Amino acid sequence: MKLRQVVFGVTTAAVLLLSSVPASAAAPARLSVSGANVVDPSGNPIVLRGYNWGHWGTVQPQDPGDHVTAGANSVRIPLRWWGEWKDDVDSRDPDPDNPSHIKQGHLDLLDKTIEQASSAGLWITLFVDSDHGQGAGGRPDNFWTNPVMKQQFKEVWQFLVRKYKATPYMGAFEILPEPKPVGQDDAHVRAFYDEMIGVIRGIDRRTPIVVGPNDNYSCSRLEGAYTTVDPKVIYTCNYFIFENPLNRIKVITDFRAAHSVPVWINQVGIEGCNDDAVAKGKARDVLGAFQDNGIGWAWWTYRLNGTNPCTHGIYYLDPSEPDGWHVKKAWRTLVNGYLAA
């Protein structure tokens, strides 16, 4: 009887101790997947809409608040690792004594960027881009052929997942965009993602994971990306707008219905000057179709690290402006008009 009283007392104390843990120490709320829907922490369907902060280091302090005011609920944030980009964009640290394989300065900036989005209540999709690893430009040295770099990429993701698994509003981990490894079919690309899902799930079993098809995230290859290894997978494909702007909508909705899985467009966008009526008409057609079909999206891109006024980007660099940025107001108005639910 005395032993039972002691056990009861210890159990009661443990319950009281756990109940006294502040809410801030509890696991943060997460998105999830239910059939063809992404659902919010309360279990209600949510259509993720927002911008890409696609060009490294371009985010300005006002951007998160401006997105929320416009109706956005999400943002897509990159880390670029092992590739050829503009100076100081590649975050890879070749130092063998650095277990993260990421340069500290890049981690500091990534921390700041994620904090900006999280503090604003924007659901974050974090992706790790690797031009070399994905096989861009027909590069034969990639994650399918180089086991050393593939292992480092696993360790990059292990580090990032541990680092951000408790970050509020971490919405999804997008493993590797736009795979196109030479000589590798859909099954080999899917096997790579399946293996990486296992790596992430060894650390974080709650946060959804984004995967996409072979051939640079081609919507026409979605079927080849379908996997059954994890129930919290969000599928994606690119939707850059050219001729026949609506030609991929049925492919997306058919795939979603056939497998009862969510599809979210990681990049939708079109090149165009501020007064390009034809490009804006195509953009309205596509964003309207997304709205009609409940397809989430992230516009490519919010700020362009360049001075071309007629390519992608709501803002582009302009040294004549007081803050160095020129906004394409007509495009901002158009895209913002489709952000609110």
Automatic annotation (TrEMBL):
Residues annotated as signal peptide: 1-25
- What SUPFAM superfamilies does this protein map onto? (Trans)glycosidases
> Where do the Glycoside hydrolase family domain residues begin and end?
39-302
Tell me which UniProt keywords the record has, alphabetically. Answer: Carbohydrate metabolism, Cellulose degradation, Glycosidase, Hydrolase, Polysaccharide degradation, Signal
The domain of life is Bacteria
Q: Which Gene3D superfamilies match?
A: Glycosidases
The Swiss-Prot or TrEMBL record describes its family as follows: Belongs to the glycosyl hydrolase 5 (cellulase A) family.
Database matches in PANTHER family: ENDOGLUCANASE, PUTATIVE (AFU_ORTHOLOGUE AFUA_5G01830)-RELATED, GLUCAN ENDO-1,6-BETA-GLUCOSIDASE B
What is the name attached to this protein's record? Cellulase family glycosylhydrolase
Q: Can you name the source organism?
A: Lentzea miocenica
Q: What is the lineage of its organism?
A: Bacteria, Bacillati, Actinomycetota, Actinomycetes, Pseudonocardiales
